[in-house]
Amino acid sequence: MKYITKKLYFSNQTLEEMNLNSKKFYNLIKKRRSVRDFKNDGINFEIIKNAILAAGTAPNGANLQPWHFVIIKNKLIKKKIRMAAEIEEKEFYEKKAPKEWLEALKPLGTDKNKSFLEEAPYLIAVFEKKNSIRNNRKIKNYYVKESVGIATGILFSFLH
How many CB atoms lie within 10 A of CB 32? Predict the structure, then answer.
C-alpha cells in the first residue's frame, strides 16, 4: 500500500510536519508545572494579551464565549485577592479538607499562605458567564463549564 506523505491538511502542514510539531508540543507541555515562585523581572504585557486572545479561540456552546478574563496588575487589588484567598484557604486547610487530601498535599508544601498572588507580575481571573446578550436579548449560555475549562486549558498551554 502506498501512502501519500506530502498531502496538506487543514493547517497546511504535511504529515511529517504535523508529527514533528506534535512531538515538540508534547516535549514542551510535559514540562508544565504549577508555579508558586516568580521572578521579579516581569513579563511583556503583550504576551499576556495574546494569551487571552488565544484562550478566546476555544470551542464553546453556540459560539457565545461564556467566559470573561480579567488581567490584574494593580498591587492593591492583588493584595486584596491574596487576603480573600487566604481566608478561604485557612478554612479549607483547618476545617474542610479531608485528612487524605491534606496528606496528598503535604509533599507539595502548599498551605494557607498565598504570597505568590502578590508576587506574580499579573493575575488572570477567569469568570464563567451564565448568560450573554445577542440581538439585544439576554440568552442562556450552554456548556459553560466545559467551554471555560477548554479556554482555560488553552490559556495555560499558551503561557507555558
Answer: 11
Q: What secondary structure does DSSP assign to 67-82, as a single string?
A: EEEEEE--HHHHHHHH
Residue 48, SS3?
helix
Q: Specify the amino acid at residue 107.
A: P
Pick the closest to residue 64 from 158, 151, 140 (CA basis): 140
Q: For 16-72, how does the pLDDT look when each residue is reduced to its tens digit (9 = 90+)? A: 999 999 999 999 999 988 877 777 778 899 999 999 999 999 999 999 999 999 999
HSE toward the beta carbon, residue 61, CA cutoff 13 A: 18
CA triplet 85, 147, 66: central angle to 5 degrees? 75
**Biggest CA pair distance of the chain:** 66
Surface-to-core class of residue 151, CB atoms within 10 Å of its CB (0-12 exposed, 13-18 middle, 19+ buried): buried
What Å distances lie between residue 102 and 53, 86, 88, 107, 112, CA to CA? 36, 16, 15, 10, 12
Average per-residue pLDDT for the chain: 91
Please indicate whether residue 121 or residue 12 has the higher confidence score (pLDDT).
121
